[in-house]
Known about the structure:
CATH class of the domain at 72-206: Mainly Alpha
Structural class: mainly alpha
Helix content: over 70%
Largest sheet: none
Number of helices: 9
Shape: elongated
Amino acid sequence: MAQRPLTKPRKQASQERSRATVEALVEATARILVRDGFDKASTNRIGQEAGVSIGSLYQYFPSKEALVVALIQRHNRQLMAVVYAALDEVEEAPLEIGVRRLVAAAIAAHRLDPKLHRVLAEQIPRTGALEDVEGFNREAHDLFRAYLGRKRAEVRPLDLDLAAFVCITSIEAVTHTAVLHRPEMLTDEGAEALVDEAARLVLGYLL
């Protein structure tokens, strides 16, 4: 049986110079994945692309899979930053405005780098990073569940855990499928129409 590749970083970058090295390696991994695909990526190629020696690369990452996992984690943090910003904006807004803004934020987050998102979605099972996706989904669920709790007077009687699951799963399915299979929906015009319809879907369920 083939041994599972190591995906945990060997050490965390603590100084500015080492953090810059790690960021260069993760960014190089993103460029190679989008340009050439996972199978053609290697630690040697990633190091060359980043301008980092292979010895320095292995100080931080034991394998290319570990670099891909680090990239997935960074990508998820970027997605969540967009969502957190939207939540701050709509805290005092009526539900209809808030839901539309949150749906727009989810779609905007997936438009940050749709080619990279597509590649990472394809490679997550191969890198063993499913737990990172599950953590991301739990965080999104908990945030939306808390939001619904604050808006309880504006929604019909609901099990908030179930409602958050239904809403987050629906939004993620719409945006994820657009990234993977309908990229034309992520153009400016397409995204606006997608936001309108996805918000109508969520609000129709909540009200």
